[in-house]
Amino acid sequence: MQAKKLTLCGMLTALAVVLSLVERLFPLDAVVPVPGVKLGLANVVTLFALTRLSARDALAVLLCRVALSSLLMGSVTAFLFSLFGGLLSLVAMWLLLRAEGRFCSLLGVSVAGAAAHNIGQIIAAVIWMKTGAVVAYLPFLLVMSVPLGLVTGLTCSVVLSHMQKIDFNV
Amino acid sequence: MRSRLKWGDFVVIGAVLVLAAALAAWFAAGTQGDLLYAEVWQDNALVERVALTDATDRTIDLDGHNVIVLSGKTAHMASADCHDQVCVRTGTLTRAGQVAVCLPNRVVLKIVGETGEIDAIVS
Amino acid sequence: MKRVLAAFLLLLGLTGCAGRQASYTTDFFAMDTFMAVSVYGDSEDAAQEAAVACEQAVNALEPALSRTREDSDLYRLNHADGAVCEVSDETYAAIEAAVQFAKLTGGAFDPTMAPLTDLWGINTENAHVPTQAEIDEALTHVGYENIKLLGNNQVQLLNGAQLDLGGIGKGFATDAAFTLLAQQPEGAATGALVQLGGNIGAFGENPSRDGGNWVVGIADPDNNAEFLATVEVRDASVVTSGDYERYFEQDGKRYHHIFDPKTGYPADTGLRSVTVIDQNSTRADAMTTALFVMGLDDGMKFCQENNIAAVFITSDKQIYTTDAVASVCTYTFLGAEKGYTDAQ
Q1: What ipTM is given for this predicted complex?
Q2: For chain C, where are the alpha helices, taking DSSP H only?
């Protein structure tokens, strides 16, 4: 059981790193002139880890993903942005998941996570660039996070229902 | 499927969009993000640093030697007791990068802020 | 969990190598003007080191170029009554440059105007129009031919000439700062903006703009805080001489500080300012003065012959640019709303 969980964590981390790499294909910093802002595709992995594993495992996967992906391609800014974004997203989704099923679906959880990811990125940018002016880009990022959150939430939900079908358990 | 939409999903999406709209409105009404500051230096030491907004209305008197007036998003050297009056003649500063210098009194008034149209003025 | 954390911290340390652009600005007073040097580099420490080194270099040049400080080479030379004097390497190099540009401009730029500026008292409490007899007397001492460069740092001033390197001093200091910035370790100073009074030096890459250029506004003669045009430059110096910076008024007439070596009066050529863009700031400094004295027609002709990038602003609100401007920078005319016309 323990080995299976560890393997899953490793695979999730690998998947998350790949998603971080794929993210680079969408040059978001061309629209938002804050070098280092990301879509947050890897949040889907965090969401999955939160639903199938524990918050602790999700955090471990997140930290490893952030460290590995910034080591692979990043600057300090990219590292800081994905760390803040990832952590805030994790907290938001973890809280909302408790109400999932009654209050909202995975889609709502995922949208909240995407929004929190962008808020986290901007907080990091404010700290790093020492200017509050970057908050001006937050409205645009928040609007973006709605379709993105819906897509990642849907992806996660499809994967989960498929796993239920094949009776995959951790 | 755990993606069947529930009422709470709309609450979440609505909250995100409302937050976005509120922030956008706040920035549109405010400074549009390009905050300007007026800095007053005397003998290479910063005396005052004041954020310039539409509501700014201040007069800084450096012991009667130089009088600096900050008004709205502008700053100018209103008077100086030096003989060349170069700083007073420099006029009103409105953009980041502009400087009014009183050499005899070693007083510098400058506007700093986000990267503006220009990096420096040659005169 | 502990292991994960340890691995994470290790990776964090590794990612710490990648940098971002840091900057440091130093403001100071030197050479009777306000100066600001902003250096951009990979780390704030390195940028600060480079900026402070520039400040020190400029301060170190002051005794070499000043004629008012009693401990300076020029003071000694000017008070030597025509005797041969030995000066420092820097002073000698600056005098050589001044003489070279005086020759090139046929004396329109002249480093021996000190007796005239002193006579008019520009920038002092008792600025006034002298009598014609006084001006004629002062003019007998003016002329760069009176400077004898004898090699081995030996200089002699004939005919009561007095040297004043104020016309190229800031340019010379800007060039010194550029040399220093270029010698900084890789990445320490990737870009810098050197503002020495009216001399702007744009070094390397501007990290705050796409394309990395520096945008310099050319001042409106009637309001120094505004500009009539911009030039986008890189690794170049932009220098302006204008009639508005230092002047006094007597009997309703305005007298400015740029004198015509031929007449002994402020050059009255219908120009408000001349801006020169050049890699060599010393040359740019000398050229702005010379072109202002030459006037628009002779100045434009001189620039075409010598491939000088210059922007002339006339008192009838016309702005002229020479052909070379387009090849050294991106020029944008912005003076329409202030009543100026682009004469091209």
Answers
A1: 0.82
A2: 2-15, 44-65, 73-78, 89-104, 114-120, 132-139, 166-182, 281-294, 296-306, 325-328
